[in-house]
Predict the 3D structure of the following.
Amino acid sequence: MDVKIRKAQSNLVSAGVGILVFAVWSVVRTTVFYFSGEGTLLDSVPEDARTNLLIRITVIIMLVIVTLVDLLFRVNISRSAIAEGKGIKKKNGYLVCAMFLVLVYSAAIAIYAAGAIGKINDIELLKMETLITLIVDSTSLYMLLLMIVSAFRLRKLLRQKKTGAQTAV
């Protein structure tokens, strides 16, 4: 049973590190997307107002705030998973947050996949960044699912070990 516990702990730590890497990737991707000039947040702002410095500053501040909240959200999940994998007791809050991210990633992957399938006849519109986003988001979804399953498995194994030790005494 100890081998199974160590494996679940190792999986939990590995998934936590993976989620942390994808959190950093999310910040990089958002920054590159904004500054690449293709499809920025300013596209929804009327052309004559785009030159307004206040609007530009407001959009950048909103982007920074949303990106930081997303980063902190993922870092919290990651740190909690790593801590639990190392044997520090954690509450269920990070698992609820992870399940929320699973729903978000599932929806995002479905939207990207539907968009890619719709553009499959026009190869020029099917950009490499769409395929990369699908692959990265799918991998991130896998990490989240691995983390959730490992956390539940670890908790179950620890309960079994505890009750088994109590009944043996």
Observations:
- Residues 9 and 124 are 45 Å apart (CA to CA).
- The chain has a mean pLDDT of 82.
